[in-house]
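User: I'm preparing a small set of examples for a lab meeting where we compare how different chains pack in three dimensions. I only have the primary sequence for this one, and I'd like the structure in token form so I can line it up with the others. Please keep the answer compact; I'll paste it straight into my notes.
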Amino acid sequence: MSPKDASGGTKAGTRFGGALTPARITVIVIGVLALIFIFENTRQVKIRLLIPEVSMPLYLALLAVFVVGVICGGYFMRRRAK
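Assistant: Understood. Below is the structure token output for the 82-residue chain.
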């Protein structure tokens, strides 16, 4: 047996080994807390979008900002990885 084969591990065995890293757990916790915060704020609010003023539940406005933040974060992380 060569030293490369001595580990006995396969790629399929290590596939889930690093699935829950501390960074991923932190992101999951922050995401869950953000969703709890969003859905606790359900009252109607008036929001001004440059010129028009719209009335919508606060959780929809917060969810929209959250989604925009996730998209921007993903975009910048992808550009940094290249």
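A couple of notes for your slides: The longest strand covers residues 44-48. Residues 58-81 form the longest helix (24 residues).

User: Perfect, thanks.
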